Amino acid sequence: MSKTAVIYWSQTGNTEAMANAIAEGAGVSAVSVSDISAAEAAEYDTLVLGCPAMGAEELDDSEFDPFYQELKASLSGKNVAIFGSYDWGDGEWLRKWEADVKETGANFVEALQINLTPDDDGIAACKALGAKVAAL
Fold first, then answer.
1. Apex 109 CA angle, 135 and 53, nearest 5
2. What is the rounded distance in angstroms from the CA atom of residue 132 to the CA atom of residue 130?
3. Given this model, what pLDDT does residue 1 score?
4. Where is pLDDT greater, at 91 or 85?
5. What CA–CA distances, in Å, run from 127 to 23, 24, 33, 38, 83?
């Protein structure tokens, strides 16, 4: 069993709700990106990273993307899953992020996106992702 962290940034609370459900499924606590450094995150074997679609379908550039850019060099060989909520578009931000994670040499696990606030099915999908990463 690996050491797992669920790390997220949320503007409206939708991605935070996803993070909390994923963390519950994994048996860990979710951590806001503002409460952990990239160096601390690099100590985990499995990382579940969450950020909603912002702007023109991109990661938040105020806190999350700078954290992710610093963390990227440490992802090779780690299990990494990504998630986030969106309001418009078709998930381009998540596809670009997935490709970027794969380029680091990480063991990519899954990408999960939910439109706006997660409903019961969305929460169930989040918990299932948490259980999946906990089993790695």
1. 125
2. 5
3. 53
4. 85
5. 7, 6, 20, 25, 12
CATH number at 119 reads 3.40.50.360
Measured at the CA of 68, the angle between CA 3 and CA 136, to 5 degrees, comes to 25
Distance CA 22, CA 70 (A): 23
Q: Map tokens 């993070």 to a residue.
A: 19
**pTM here?**
0.96
Task: State the total domains in the chain.
Answer: 1
What average pLDDT does range 5-20 have in this prediction? 97
What confidence score (pLDDT) does residue 90 get? 83
**Distance (Å) of CA 42 to CA 48, 58, 74, 85, 116:** 12, 23, 6, 24, 29
Tell me which long-range contacts 92-100 makes (C-beta under 8 A, separation of at least 24): 92/53, 92/57, 93/53, 93/54, 93/57, 93/58, 93/59, 94/53, 96/57, 96/58, 97/51, 97/59, 100/72
What interhelical angle do 120-134 and 14-26 show, nearest 10?
A: 40
Tokens 């995150």, residue located = 41
How big is the chain, counted in residues? 136
> What range does the domain containing 109 cover?
4-134
